[in-house]
Design a protein that fits this description.
The complex is a heterodimer of chains A (272) and B (252). Chain A is of the alpha/beta class. Chain A has two domains: 205 residues, Glutaconate Coenzyme A-transferase (3-Layer(aba) Sandwich); 37 residues, no CATH class. Chain A has eight helices and 13 strands. In chain A, strands 1, 2, 3, 4, 5, 9, 10, 11, 12 and 13 form a ten-stranded mixed β-sheet that branches. In chain A, a hairpin with a 4-residue loop joins strand 9 and strand 10. Chain A is globular, with a radius of gyration of 18 Å. The radius of gyration of chain B is 17 Å and the shape is globular. The chains are: A alpha/beta (272), B alpha/beta (252). At the A-B interface, helix 4 and helix 5 of A face helix 3 and strand 9 of B.
């Protein structure tokens, strides 16, 4: 584990074209400092895997034209509406979608983290149209105990995940605040883990803190200090989503002519 | 009688539907179902618990209704269930009682669609994605709601089933499916379901005509008892709703 600047962490631990996982839920805890680094350097993302509900951390990468395919149960802006770049890219056929739901994604990540080759899906999925359109993630299996036919979801190991967490100590042990969402699970499943943090404290300083560091340094490759680095999304307990700044992004992303200006203006290094 | 907004009426309708002791789950943009749960807890269902979306907070009581489902404003909450645990329990089928959900489209059998309008591989409209809706049949029942009652939203058959409703045919092959959708709440009316699992008008909101509801609905509802008028919020219900909605999220 090393404490690095965003540029070095992304260059060292994300291989262009590989599978990138991005954490954060809805309009909270999006690892925007790391994502902007990918946008700024125009690094292609072969497959983007999101948490169960992504917003700007996915839409921005798509808006920048960097994503070839996406595996995500949700890309949107919750109470602010649909994700413009995601919508446009899928409707025009420019972005390949691997359809998945929150449950299957979560189980696929557990499986990836635990060396489990696939997971038979719990009830519900079989009554939807989802598995039929995504043969890459879903296949039929026979339950060896009952003989019943079921859907199974493939296990999932992102090559690299980017997360935004509350605090790390200088040894790289990472603590979540109130909500770990599925970010901790994504870290367990990933081959490489880069964590941007709001706060960096001396090694060992988290030992007295409840609930303490629950992601040990040996599961973390790089820590990047980035206070405020989830903006314009929020970080619970520290800052709220900036609806005005999110609105500015949405307006730019809806209009391809304005998008280039937005990316140039916000990708110039000022986004911290 | 005080003036009230349609969204306040919808919250009151949902609140009255909850039973004491039920565990309710909800997804993104939680203000409406959350208001309904809090109203139910303050009136007839003090032992009801609700889990708010990706935060996993259990029955949070913030001073003001939140816009989002994952923010730091979902406090105080006595407990929080980490999201992977919520997902795990949703698969089990006996952990949660009511799922509050909606969709880009909701069809005559209560199937929901958050994925696409038109064909999946070349959609006219790409939705955000289904999140947890495949788990709808795993709760004992579901309550569906939409802020948009139009022939585009309430359709005969969804273009893509991302949240299962009642089966259109015989149910034998799907033994685990429970009560299914029990109520649909819109800005114009409420619906329940016939014994064949087809939506029928239960009540029409005050000031709305029956033919307006039919014109705004993209399918022929099943015949049923003559729909009455949705009972409006009482002064007590409104006072409770507004006690935790000082910003008037439900009146926008």
């Amino acid at each position: 584990m090393r404490v690095l600047e965003a540029e070095a962490a992304v260059a060292e631990y994300y291989t262009p074209g590989s599978t990138l996982g991005v954490g954060g839920m809805q309009l909270a805890a999006a690892p925007m400092t790391l994502v902007w680094e990918v946008v700024r350097r125009r690094i292609p993302v072969g497959r983007l895997v999101t948490s169960p509900s992504a917003s700007i951390q996915a839409d921005l990468l798509i808006a920048a034209g960097l994503v070839s395919e996406i595996l995500s149960p949700y890309v949107g802006f919750e109470y602010l509406g649909l994700a413009p770049a995601y919508r446009r890219a899928v409707e025009s056929g420019d972005l390949r979608v691997l359809e998945i739901d929150e449950g299957s994604l979560t189980h696929a990540l557990w499986a990836g983290g635990g060396g489990i080759p696939f997971v038979p899906a719990p009830p519900g999925l079989d009554l939807t149209d989802i598995p039929e359109v995504d043969p890459e993630m879903f296949r039929r299996v026979t339950d060896p105990f009952t003989g019943e036919e079921r859907w199974a979801v493939a296990s999932l190991r992102p090559d690299t995940v980017f997360l935004a967490c509350a605090v790390a100590d200088e040894a790289g042990n990472v603590a979540f605040d109130r909500f770990p969402y599925t970010d901790r699970l994504m870290a367990l499943a990933a081959r490489r883990v880069v964590v941007q943090v709001e706060e960096l404290v001396p090694a060992g300083a988290l030992s007295d803190r409840a609930p303490g560091a629950t992601l040990p340094a040996f599961l973390v490759d790089a820590v990047v200090l980035a206070p405020g680095g989830c903006r314009p999304t929020g970080f619970p307990g520290r800052y709220a989503p900036d609806d005005e700044a999110l609105g500015a992004y949405l307006a730019a992303a809806r209009d391809p002519e304005r998008l280039a200006g937005y990316l140039a203006e916000h990708g110039g290094g000022g986004e911290r | 009688m005080s003036e009230w907004s349609i969204t306040e009426l919808m919250a009151v309708v949902m609140a009255r539907e909850f039973r004491d002791g039920e565990i309710v789950v909800m997804g993104a943009v939680p203000a409406l179902p959350m208001a309904a749960c809090r109203l139910a807890r303050a009136t007839h269902a003090p032992r009801l618990e609700f889990i708010v979306g990706g935060s996993g907070t259990v029955s949070p009581e913030p001073p003001s209704l939140p816009l989002g489902s994952c923010g730091g404003d979902l406090a105080p909450a006595a407990t929080t269930l980490p999201l992977p645990d919520v997902v795990l329990l949703e698969g089990r089928g006996d952990a949660f009682d009511v799922f509050c959900a909606g969709g880009l489209q909701i069809d005559a059998h209560g199937n929901c669609n958050l994925i696409c309008v038109g064909s999946w591989d070349r959609p006219k409209l790409r939705g955000p994605g289904t999140v947890g809706l495949p788990f709808l049949p795993n709760t004992r029942r579901s309550i569906l709601y939409t802020q948009s009652h139009s022939p585009r939203t309430l359709v005969e058959r969804v273009d893509f089933v991302s949240g299962p409703g009642h089966p259109a045919g015989p149910d034998e092959a799907r033994p685990y499916r429970k009560e299914g959708p029990s109520l649909v709440v819109t800005p114009l009316a409420t619906f329940d379901f016939s014994s064949e699992g087809r939506m029928r008008i239960r009540t029409v909101h005050p000031g709305v005509r029956h033919d307006e509801v039919l014109a705004a609905t993209g399918f022929e509802p099943a015949p049923g008892p003559e729909p009455g008028e949705t009972p409006p919020p009482t002064d007590e219900e409104l006072a409770i709703l507004r006690s935790f909605d000082p910003a008037g999220i439900l009146r926008r």
